[in-house]
Amino acid sequence: MDWNIDRKISSITVDNCSTNDAMIDLLWDKLDSTSLMLGGDLFHMRCCVHILNLIVEDGLDVIKVGVSAVLDPRYKINVLEFYFRLLFPTTYKEDVEKVRALCYKLFKKYQSPSSMMEGIGDSSSQLSSIDEESRSKYDVYMLRESKRSRTIDTAK
User: Fold this and answer.
1) What is the crossing angle of helices 132-155 and 92-111, to 10°?
2) Orientation angle between helical segments 73-87 and 48-71, nearest 10 degrees
3) I need a labelling partner for 108 at 20 to 30 A (CA). Which of 23, 58, 118, 148 fits?
4) CB-count exposure of residue 81 (10 Å: 0-12, 13-18, 19+)
């Protein structure tokens, strides 16, 4: 070895690819283990970041549905209704309806192309917005939830 690289290597860190294992075996045969630090005990190390990344990706795939449910505004309204019922037993209905109305108002404002495009010009066709079907599903959901909360209250 012309550059004496065999005397300058202390360790090699690789991920868990099988070609890396084969390369490490070839290098190990070429190098003198007495010239390596600690007799070559630290020569081959695995990169745990790659393995950790795979574990995290698998974990995120498992909890993806739960995370999307928590981010769903309908879930948040249900949670809000539950806690308002505990904290403000006499006025929780009105407070929840105010929040629902505000959410609905924000949803309508978000859907309005004119509010999104103020001062930009006539490029509203380029923006993607929630279609009529989604909007009607939201309306149906809001009506169903308000009826459901009324039936739960009358059952008590």
Assistant:
1) 180
2) 60
3) 148
4) buried
Q: Distance between CA 76 and CA 70 in Å, rounded?
A: 7
Give dist(CA 146, CA 155) in Å, integer. Answer: 14
> d(Cα 90, Cα 60) in Å, to the nearest integer?
41
Tens-digit pLDDT profile for residues 78-92: 888 888 999 988 988
Closest C-alpha to 136, from 111, 153, 156 = 111
Q: Which two tokens stand for residue 116?
A: 């999104």
Residue by residue, DSSP assigns 33-86 as GGGSGGGGTTSEEE-HHHHHHHHHHHHHHHHHHHHHHHHSHHHHHHHHHHHHHH
Using alpha carbons, select from 103, 110, 99 the residue that is nearest to residue 139.
103
pLDDT digits (tens, 9 = 90+) for 14-46: 776 777 778 877 877 877 777 777 777 766 666
CA distance 106 to 142: 14
What confidence tens digit (pLDDT) does each residue in 76-126 have?
A: 788 888 889 999 889 888 988 888 888 888 878 877 766 555 555 444 443
